[in-house]
Amino acid sequence: xxxxxxxxxxxxxxxxxxxxxxxxVDLHAYxxxxxxxxxxxxxSLSCITLSKxxxxxxxxxxxxxxxxxxxxxxxWTVVESKALQANRQASSLSDIV
Length: 97
What we know:
Layout: E1 3-5, E2 17-19, H1 24-47, H2 55-96
């Protein structure tokens, strides 16, 4: 199988991988879940009075949202690449016919 590395967050070494042979539907679902969760965390932060939030809690929210959005973005780059490749193949086939 072919894998793409997720962006490392706490070390210089890559540990987590994306299966680039997974279906577009599965990759999209996985990436969307993370992007939506990260967006929801940011939305929640925008509704909180920051002067009343504990600094440690704020840090946890920001780190969690950043991690989710980073993973989601990495997955969506694979989705984009696969979609563009499929589009090129379909275009090549239509040129033959």
